[in-house]
Amino acid sequence: MSTCVRRAVHRTVISIIALAAFTGVSVAAAQAPAPPPSAKCAKANKRVASQEKWVASAKAALERTEKASTTCTTKPVCDRFAIKIRESQERQTKREARLATLKAAAAKACATP
Fold first, then answer.
1. Distances from the Cα of 95 to the Cαs of 52, 57, 58, 90, 106, in angstroms?
2. What pLDDT is recorded for position 16?
3. Alpha carbon of 46 to those of 43, 67, 70, 109: distances in Å?
4. Residue 31 DSSP class
5. Rounded to 5 degrees, what angle do the CA atoms 85, 93, 53 make?
6. Which residue numbers in the chain have pLDDT < 50?
7. pLDDT for position 79
8. CA–CA distance, 76 with 82 (Å, rounded to integer)
9. Per-domain residue ranges of the chain
10. Distance between CA 24 and CA 17 in Å, rounded?
11. In the chain, which residue ranges form alpha helices assigned H by DSSP?
12. Residue 6's pLDDT is what?
């Protein structure tokens, strides 16, 4: 194949690719892009993410405490573990309830009018 023919084929392929890319951009531009989330929605989602992160770390800490409590050897140590576990479970229940309310508020803030 001569150099001239290769260059012609190369130009043709590039023009086809450019045309396809331009057509794809035109179709994408014709579709209405989703509006960015409002400031209230973004803030609500940020609060939900923060609360979810806290709940996940609290669950992990509770699991570690429960695992450690299985190896306690004296009654005072076992009692301290039991108290710590009970308090952690109470805090976790409150945080999960708060997470549910924050999710509801986020859904309300992010609802499209």
1. 9, 12, 9, 9, 16
2. 72
3. 5, 32, 37, 12
4. S
5. 90
6. none
7. 93
8. 10
9. 1-33, 37-113
10. 10
11. 3-30, 39-69, 75-110
12. 62
